[in-house]
Amino acid sequence: MKFHDRPSRLTTLAVTLCALPLMASAQNYKALKTTDHGVDIVRLTDAAHGIEVSIAPGIGNRAYEMKVHGKNILHLGAPDVAQLKERPGLSGIPFLAPWANRMTDGGFWANGKKYTFNSGLGSVRVPPNGIAMHGMVSASPLWEMTEVKADGKSARVTSRLEFWKHPELMANWPFAHEYQMTYSLADGALEVITTVINHSVEAMPLALGYHPYYTLPDVPRDQAFAHIPAKTAVVLDDRTVATGEMKPFDLPDSIPLKDRTFDHGFTDLIRDKDGRATFSVEGEGKKIEVVYGPKWIVAVVWEPKGQNFICFEPMAGITNGVNLAHDGKYPQQQTLAPGATWRESFWVRPSGI
Question: Does pLDDT of 25 surpass 50?
């Protein structure tokens, strides 16, 4: 090799070596369109942390698995995703909109007007007690993927549901709007980003939320502990509907789940300097943290008897808050102005699994 050749070759080698960490980082994250038991899905992978997240856009854009070193920390509630599609009960991370949990009196109030649900359209079911549950899109096939991407920072998928295009939805919630949802897997945590855009000429109540089901693999519930960072509990009536009253929440910081059940709402969440509130369930060295962004102002915690899961449900308001706001009993009800956009995240962060 001639002396004057060396700078060129050394420069090429240096450039190659500098590129190697970036290439390795990019290979860590993957976002793949594929199928699971014949169902179209997107799978996000964070190889460095051993995490795979599977999302079924055609089942309400639901994340139904989050495997950590092969162990699923989301309760599926069905033998596989094909059977979930056949009978789409709540499981995984279902999105509840335009309202979460219960809406009473067969409809809702907004901007001084009463809107009555039409159950004959098939988009909402109103039982004889008049309490409509969990909105209209928890298993909707109307989501459209707009981006599936992986790079050196994350693996992610974004989907959109243009609510305003569908008459059977608009008839029961007559506000032209759309949802955008991004699942982003990065640094060992799953971020769920929700965006709502109000195309209407009137303000739209925000009553949406999620109903995620978390389970600690191989840990019996009697060996698990929960952390609920809240100062205030929501008072419920005998229908598990909020009354508008509140009371202090005074359980210990680490709550044993043995011989205990939860089906309660909480507000006045205890937050860090960034406005985030961290819920958790842990046992036998394993832990799942669920972190709420500032606009998720309410948490419903559900942990029924005889089941090995717990739900930390991020909510934009208390159960039936839209109607309680009309009655002057819930001044914290969020609304979205005409033409405005609402956006917030929550994160799922496992450790020790």
Answer: no
